[in-house]
Design goal:
heterotrimer; A alpha+beta; B alpha/beta; C mainly alpha; B: alpha/beta; Oxidized Rhodanese, domain 1; five-stranded parallel beta sheet; globular; C: mainly alpha
Chain lengths: 346, 302, 56
């Protein structure tokens, strides 16, 4: 919408970001009155070069350089085990920057103008003011395929109880998760101090004996989400570089590939054997990694089918991954994720 | 002696007539104006519940209002959209909002689309089902509050959560089996637009077009004026009487596609016009049309 | 001599005054991007891309 490109005149005189000319950050030709001439050489997302913000925001620019939202290193780390050394070189040269890293966030993507997804952006967050947070127009865009619509219920399931209580992303995910702490991580799984349910919901405060006993029994064996994810979440299948993937709702329980001692909710990884074939990568080690990763669906609910009745898991075995359901032609590592719950002995 | 008996008899008759009316006695009007809400915002019994999305509430809200967005009040259950949450979940939502059975609740929503308008009546129906009788809808919603240039807060007000101890009111809720048993006996009012009633259009989520056998058509969108406010009581009363007749004691069941639109006429009939026995069929056509044995009528205005 | 000095001063002040007035005029960017009607008339809706990657 055109309003997304409208600057609030009132801030020009008062906001220190505007104390100098527009072209200081945006380049282009400020004096021109003709649009084409004015926009020649203009940089749309100037803060993608962190040095633009560094003069006043030195500390943040320093740590953000290594932060995962900027490096998107996790997207490389998550798939690289499937490549041979040669294939990894090809991936780095031809695929990573162009495809995966294309969605890395500049400072402005979170603080000035909503990120562009499939050609669409909500535009300037607030008339080109520099805002601290506006999750509904920033996080919700890049993470608008999975997490956000599941969280708000827009995907079709029950909205997460935290959203129902008026919480949005940064009420759990703190500033340091985005700006980084200076360390260069290869994936978010390396980071400590991520939000954890027990940070706000420690054991021992349950209101019913049933809840207390259920928690004690399943501690260390299952993730919180295995029982408290309210329903199906989006799973993406069959991704091909340049063509995208197809998705469908699903609810999958199985062993956590990163910690085979616990059961958790799994989400399909859209990588298939010929995902990168167009770049000449066959993935020699495809079978090393599974096609399902552990996930924390953001559709948490206090009471679910699984908390109301033990039979849902222990008798009906609902949602548990079976051999028949495995992706056709999927990685051999998938079989290691199958778990069959046992009947409860009375 | 005879006089005394007569006195007691008269008293009994009066009580029999007035006691049920006490059940319908409201402390606050079913539709409240912006001016009224502005004057009563600091009433400790009053809770203004903003049912818009969290992001919309954060951008600007009515002072002292709390945010419990629509998705907390109507959920997908057993493959059906816009269903009541389980009773224990509903009580959690009501209690977390700091609402007691005796609270005066004003539902505040948007008025951009028909869905937005009936979201308000649907939440009102849900609260009354949950045992909170004094529920009102803000006439014109947040849109009109803004147009009136009334005070807008940017703060998020945290409700004082409590354990809700209320009783569900199943008398305003109809199941499919109940609706089937009442065909030809109760008035069934289809609150969808005429093309859906007649059967030339249907939603993708509804298996077959048409209406419940014996249902009459009275669309919920017609309750509201172009600016999102309720039409006046006389006009609403005349519309209802024209379709349902003047007998307000006759049992009426309102239905639509998912149980949302029908909350519109449910609210008007019971809360504004005083019809005494009005139910809403939650599952509505999304559930009804799945049943091959449920009588469905297409291409007829009856 | 005095007249010449005074006139020169006046000329310099005039030139600076004009320069300031001109300099104070909105830059091309601000002039367009704060004008709602103009932005509306120039806006071209984006083409919606298909199959573009995104974290999702």
């Amino acid at each position: 919408m055109y309003k997304g490109l409208l600057i609030d005149k009132g801030i020009i005189g008062s906001d220190p970001h505007f104390s100098d000319s527009c072209s200081l950050c945006h380049k282009g030709n400020e004096k021109a009155q003709d649009r084409k001439v004015a926009h020649k050489g203009m940089i749309k997302r100037p803060s993608d070069n962190l040095q633009i913000c560094a003069p006043c925001h030195e500390d943040i620019a320093k740590t953000y350089k290594n932060a995962l939202h900027y490096t998107t290193a996790g997207q490389r780390h998550g798939v690289m085990a499937r490549f041979s050394q040669e294939e990894l070189k090809t991936f780095d040269a031809k695929v990573f920057e162009k495809s995966c890293r294309s969605c890395h966030a500049s400072c402005g993507d979170c603080h000035v103008k909503g990120p562009v997804i499939s050609g669409i952006s909500t535009g300037l967050l607030k008339g080109h003011r520099f805002v601290k947070r506006d999750e509904g127009k920033t996080c919700a865009l890049c993470h608008g395929g999975r997490v956000y619509p599941e969280f708000t219920g827009e995907y079709g399931g029950t909205p997460d109880v935290h959203y129902q209580k008026g919480m949005v992303c940064m009420d759990c995910h703190k500033k340091a998760e985005f700006h980084g702490d200076g360390n260069l991580y290869v994936s978010r799984h390396e980071r400590k101090n991520k939000p954890a349910c027990i940070n706000c919901h420690p054991a021992g405060q349950e209101k019913s004996e049933k809840a207390k006993s259920a928690h004690t029994t399943h501690t260390d064996k299952m993730s919180c989400a295995s029982c408290h994810a309210s329903g199906q979440y989006r799973n993406c299948y069959d991704c091909h570089a340049g063509k995208g993937a197809t998705s469908k709702p699903g609810f999958i329980l199985g062993l956590n590939p990163r910690d085979k001692k616990t059961i958790t909710t799994l989400r399909v990884v859209p990588t298939v054997r010929d995902t990168f074939l167009s770049a000449g990568i066959k993935m020699d080690n495809f079978d090393v990694l599974p096609n399902y990763w552990d996930t924390v669906p953001h559709n948490i609910k206090k009471r679910t089918e699984r908390t109301r009745s033990c039979d849902v898991c222990h008798v009906d075995k609902e949602g548990f991954l079976t051999k028949e359901q495995l992706i056709k032609g999927g990685a051999k590592a998938n079989e290691g994720l199958i778990y069959t719950p046992k009947q409860i002995k009375n | 002696m005879k006089m005394r008996r007569l006195k007691w008899f008269c008293l009994l008759v009066i009580l029999t007539i007035t006691l049920p009316c006490a059940a319908f006695a409201r402390d606050i009007a079913p539709v409240v104006s912006r001016d009224w809400l502005e004057k009563n915002l600091n009433d400790p019994k009053l809770i203004a519940v903003d049912i818009r999305k969290v992001e919309e509430y954060r951008e600007g809200n009515i002072p002292n209002s709390i945010n419990v967005f629509y998705g907390s009040w109507a959920v997908k259950k057993k493959g059906l959209d816009n269903e009541l949450p389980e009773d224990d979940d509903l009580f959690d939502v009501i209690g977390s909002a700091g609402i007691k059975a005796g609270s005066h609740v004003v539902v505040v929503g948007k008025t951009d689309t028909v869905a937005d308008l009936v979201n308000m009546t649907r939440v009102a129906w849900t609260l009354i089902y949950g045992g909170v009788e004094n529920v009102a809808v803000l006439d014109g919603g947040f849109n009109k509050w803004k147009d009136d240039k009334k005070t807008i807060y940017k703060e998020v007000v945290k409700p004082k959560a409590l354990e809700y101890k209320g009783k569900v009111n199943k008398a305003i809720f109809a199941t499919k089996e109940y609706v089937l048993s009442k065909i030809g006996k109760a008035a069934i009012v289809d609150t969808r637009m005429p093309d859906f009633y007649f059967g030339v259009s249907k939603l993708d989520i509804v298996e077959k077009p048409g209406h419940v056998k014996g249902a009459v058509s009275l669309p919920s969108p017609w309750i509201f004026a172009k600016d999102g406010t309720f039409k006046n009581k006389e006009e609403l009363g005349a519309m209802a009487a024209g379709v349902l007749g003047k007998d307000t004691s006759k049992e009426t069941i309102a239905n639509c596609d998912t149980g949302r639109l029908c909350s519109g006429w449910w609210f008007v009939l019971r809360e504004i016009l005083g019809y005494q026995d009005v139910k809403a069929y939650d599952g509505s056509m999304q559930e009804y049309a799945k049943d091959p044995n449920a009588p469905l009528v297409k291409y007829s205005w009856q | 001599m005095k007249k010449v000095v005074l006139l020169s001063f006046a000329l310099i002040i005039l030139i600076y005054g004009v320069a300031f007035a001109v300099a104070d005029k909105d830059s091309g960017c601000v002039g367009c991007h704060t004008d709602e009607a103009l932005m509306k008339s120039l806006f071209v809706p984006p083409k919606i891309g298909g199959g573009e990657e995104g974290e999702g």
